[in-house]
Design goal:
Length: 248
């Protein structure tokens, strides 16, 4: 038999290099060295450098630095106008399309008013005839209707009994010492219209009561009217004159 050729060995892959050994191109390791500390302030640019972004150029030296002039905050621009910090903004509209309401205006200063003149009052310890007449009119009413109501109540509606009644207001003036009349007092009389409206009404009764003396330094009357002749005389024309009592 003919001889056979020797078998060719199968190729094996190249061995993988050990990763612990750096490659030739890596250079020396720096794993055990700290990086340098960064500078706290930027390093100044070289004064001799020229060109954009590196230092003052010949144009900037001739006309000034426009960037530095534009960023100076000391003076406001001409377009700012006056400040509006103390002005309230207008009220926003409540409905779309409604114009904004004007801002609130200052409240108007009220015009000064004249102080009212106090009503004249009598000195302490004195009483005028006007107060007596006002109290009687307040009690009896403008039409003497109080007299009619009292007469109907006391008579129980008996007309014959009412015909015998007269109802009059009464005032009593008291003093713990002396009582003196220093002005004329004439109690008012009823008019014909008042008598027609209240047939049972009569004129007022007056009582002067004092712990000491009662001094009449002026006239005191009831049921009298001034004379039409105007000569200062008085006429007794009332058949419903009031009564006067003096107690001392």
């Amino acid at each position: 038999a003919a001889p056979t050729a020797a078998p060719t060995p199968a190729p094996t892959p190249a061995p993988t290099p050990n990763p612990n050994i750096p490659s030739v191109g890596n250079g020396p390791t720096t794993g055990d060295q700290k990086p340098p500390t960064p500078p706290l302030t930027p390093s100044p640019q070289a004064g001799a450098a020229t060109g954009l972004g590196k230092g003052p150029t010949a144009l900037a030296a001739a006309f000034g630095d426009p960037l530095a002039a534009a960023t100076t905050p000391t003076e406001p621009s001409a377009g700012n106008g006056p400040t509006t910090g103390s002005v309230k903004p207008p009220t926003p509209p409540l409905v779309p399309g409604t114009p904004a309401a004007p801002g609130p205006s200052a409240a108007p200063t009220p015009a000064p008013t004249v102080a009212p003149t106090p009503a004249p009052t009598s000195p302490p310890g004195q009483l005028g005839i006007g107060r007596v007449v006002a109290d009687n009119a307040s009690f009896m009413g403008s039409g003497q209707q109080t007299a009619t109501a009292i007469a109907q109540r006391l008579s129980g509606g008996d007309a014959s009994l009412q015909a015998l009644m007269t109802v009059r207001p009464g005032v009593e003036i008291r003093s713990s010492t002396d009582l003196s009349l220093s002005a004329d007092w004439r109690l008012p009389t009823l008019s014909q219209a008042q008598i027609a409206m209240a047939p049972r009404a009569a004129e007022a009764a007056l009582t002067l009561r004092a712990a000491g003396d009662v001094q009449l330094n002026a006239s005191l009357s009831t049921g009298l009217r001034a004379s039409p002749s105007g000569d200062g005389t008085w006429l007794g024309t009332s058949d419903r004159a009031g009564s006067i009592r003096i107690t001392a």
